[in-house]
Structure formats: C-alpha cells, structure tokens
Amino acid sequence: MTEEMKPSESPRTLSSFWSLPNDVALNILARISRIHHPSLSLVSKCFKSILSSRELDVTRTLMDKTEKHIYLYLKFRRHTKPCWFALTPGPDQKLKQLPSFPYEHHPDSPTVVSSSSEIYLIGGLVNHRRSRRVFVLDCRCQKWRKLPEMRVPRGSYAAAGFIDGKLYVLGGRESSGEVYDPKSGTWEPYMMNIHKDVIAEEKILCRAVNHLGSSFLTWCDLGDKMGWRQVKGLEGLFPVPPDFVSVASQDGGRRLTVWWVSYQKEDDLVLVSEIEIWCAEISFQIRSREEVYGVVEWSKVLHAMNRSETGGVISLLSSAIVNM
C-alpha cells in the first residue's frame, strides 16, 4: 500500500512547494548546489524553468551562494579535435564534454576571459590569420552566441578584462586597444591616456607569455604608454618547458588564474604514467607605477588522468572559471 501511495504523493508535494511565495521558493532553491540541478530538472517543467532562470542567478548572487565552475578546452591526442569540458564540482570530479562549437572554425589561441556565468573567446587565429570574431558561452545553458566583431583583428597574447561593466581588449600583435559596451553592443577604440593615473583605480590587465622555453606573466596599465612589463616575484612557479594558459578575473586585473599541465613519469622513465592539470590563483600588489608583484594565493592539482585516458598526450588550450 505504501508503494502505491508514493506516485500520488509527489503531485501534492510539488503543489505545496509552488504554493509558497515566489521569493521564498527562490530562497530555498538558491541554497541547493548546482551539482543537483540536472536531477532536479527532471522533477517537473516548473523546476527546470526556474533552475535555468535569471531570477535564481540573481538570488544566488545576493545570498552569496554562487559556486566556482571550471571549464577547460582540451586536446587529448595529436589527431583528435579539441573540445570544451566542464570539470564537475565535488569530491568525485569528472570531465563532462560540452556540445560541439556551433560555428565554423573554433579560433586557435584566443584570449579567454570570464564574467559572471559567461566565457568570452576573443580573437585568436583562424587558418593562421588573426581574427576579429568574439564568441560567448553561456555556461548556465551551455549555448554559444556571437558578439559584434572587433574593429581590429587580434591574434594570440592579447589581454582582456571587464572593468566597470565594459570589456577592454589590448594587444594580440596590435598596439591599439578597444572597448566593448554590452549595453550598446558596440566596439570603440581605446587610447592609452598617459595623463590619467589609472593604476590608482585598479585598472590593469595581465597576460601569460611563453617565450624561448620560459614562462612569465606580464602586466599593462591602461592609463599609460609604457607597454607590457613582467610581473615580479613568481620566478620558478611554472614548469619548464611551459604549457599553460591564464584567465583574468573581474577584480580589475588584480587576480589571475594560471593553468599548466604536469607529466608524472614512472621511475624517471620516458613513459608517462599520469597527467595532472594544475591551477594557481595569483593576486597582485602594485608597489609603484613601474612595479607589480605576484603573490600565489593557492596552487593545487585540479584534475589527474592516467595515461590510458589521454593516450599519453594532452594539450591545455584554454581555460576559465565562472561563478554560478
């Protein structure tokens, strides 16, 4: 009898839940980790709708219930096509492959920056030529969209960051910069203003550079014309030879997440036994207009794979951390 009653109890339970005031229902659902959202979405169409709603995102942010989610653009073997993966949160982390990139030619070496629950791919190389294209991945629904193209094509080693709600892009083998206003949907040129003390307003951009077998971070003040300078205090942090990418946070360029791949070998042999994906979060201390020092806040292995999973070779092409 008990087993027969269970199906009829579910509608009454759901009806009782949805009889709650809307703000109370949102408050309850905002406390549930996104790990459980796929299962909850199967309960009813109402649950699926509210779990993907902007209102729930706003409520989670106001209640400080957002979680960090990691996205990686990986290539496992020399002849396979790279794919985007989400690293599921929780103790049993797994790589979950995302739907294929829907547009022609995923850019090589784009500049990647995250804002809230979205990941931006900026410029990069298409058929070995610099690109103006900008793509956005909405991590809530795992769907891509295109932004208006930049004014200038930009390749690798550009820097980008959101400052005061606008997207600033510098470099990419171009000396000029430009800024995107999401409200108007337009790009405008950005001229470096040597007379304005922008460092005091925390408006700096940082990027990672691999050059001649070494790895280092460089920074640029949006308010002067002194160009890119090396971040000090991080000597010996990165592996040799280098294999890492970086993503700037929203904190006015004051924080950066840096990623790299480490190959663990069996008894100092050439054969790789395990491949580790490392991540470090670095904060910056501005000591003068000419000196920025990096401080490693934390550094750890985010995911490890054995040789059979990867074929012995893995390339970490891009990465991002989003808050949802």
TrEMBL record:
It comes from the Eukaryota. Gene3D superfamilies: Kelch-type beta propeller. SMART domains: FBOX, Kelch. CDD domains: F-box_AtAFR-like. Residues 20-60 form the F-box domain. PANTHER family: F-BOX ASSOCIATED DOMAIN-CONTAINING PROTEIN (PTHR24414:SF127), F-BOX/KELCH-REPEAT PROTEIN SKIP4 (PTHR24414). This is F-box domain-containing protein.
